[in-house]
Amino acid sequence: MTSAEAAESTARSYYDSEDADNFYSRVWGGEDIHIGLYRTPDEEIAAASRRTVAKMAEVAGIGSGTRVLDLGAGYGGAARQLAKRFGAAVHCLNLSPVENDRNARLTTEQGLEELVTVATGTFEDVPVEDASVDVVWSQDAFLHSGAREKVLDEVVRVLRPGGQVVFTDPMAVDGLDQSSIQPILDRIQLSTMATPGFYTDGLAARGMTAVTFHDHAEQLPTHYRRVREELVAREQELAAAISDTYIANMKAGLQHWVDGGTAGKLTWGIVHAVRG
Predict the structure, then answer these.
(1) pLDDT (0 to 100) of residue 11
(2) Most-buried pick from 92, 175, 244, 249 (CB within 10 A)?
(3) Which of 275, 5, 8 is nearest to 158 (CA)?
(4) How many angstroms separate the CA atoms of 77 and 116, rounded?
């Protein structure tokens, strides 16, 4: 098994577990399980997460009829927001059948199945035609890849000339000795994290233009702290749906992200580029 295949298997097994599904759907923000842009440290997680989607849509200029490919779409909250608020047509690609089933159900319940489609697959081998997409979108998913160079290849391949990529990802800061974040690497079961320079340099080397990293590093520890607070506050209630072992491991794991972000070892933000 290659490193990319191993990373894919690990991510799928993790997100398909009943514990993970209950945690992310109940604690992390419901439909949108990504890092938020917080106005205050105690803001509701879901509201901050929706703000991230709105900001990314603004950066990419998404509007009515924009063809969006959402890589690692999770429960599809961003896709439905883009469809409802902006009239975009969004194709969700995600490796977790459990998450995809919830995505499809919520999409149908909200009457958005004509604008939002859902498929199972990976972002290292995207089942989409060359130059067929206006915007490639992703939120906090690429860190799970064991073949990030291939991910960038696929992003560029599917974009039409003039198309845009906009994504977020938790990253190590450039130049960091990543052995200092070993607990986080162990958590995602990979040997490295990407850095802003990896993404911006990689996109530029593939002919992308106007490559920009919008740095929102302070939001990473804010978000993970906020999620941990919510988990701790609701621990007794959640015990009926989530195992004690999972809760204990998640509290420890979330604290590692908070500590890494607070220490300036991790960053997060919006990467944007245009295909020339």
Answers:
(1) 53
(2) 92
(3) 275
(4) 10
| 178, 192 Cβ separation under 8 angstroms | yes
Q: Which two three-digit tokens encode residue 138?
A: 């992703």
Check whether 27 has a pLDDT greater than 80: no
CA atoms within 13 A on the CB side of 152: 20
What DSSP string runs through 151-200?
HHHHHHHHEEEEEEEEEE--EEPTT--GGGGHHHHHHHT-S----HHHHH
C-alpha 43/C-alpha 225 separation (Å) is: 11
- Under a CB-based contact definition with an 8 Å cutoff, are residues 69 and 133 in contact? yes
Instruction: With CA atoms as reference, report the closest residue to 165 among 103, 220, 95, 212.
Output: 212
Alpha helices in the chain (DSSP H): 3-16, 18-26, 45-60, 77-86, 97-109, 148-158, 182-188, 196-205, 219-233, 235-238, 244-262
Distance from C-alpha of 55 to C-alpha of 190, rounded to nearest angstrom? 29
pTM for the whole structure: 0.92
Rounded to 5 degrees, φ, ψ at 92 are -95, 130
The Cα–Cα gap between 35 and 28 comes to 9
Residue of 269, 263, 233 lying closest to 251 (CA atoms)? 233
Under DSSP, the state recorded for 41 is: T
Average pLDDT over residues 50-54: 96
Helix axes 18-26, 244-262, angle to 10 degrees: 60
Which among 98, 101, 100, 144 has a CA at the least distance from the CA of 123? 144
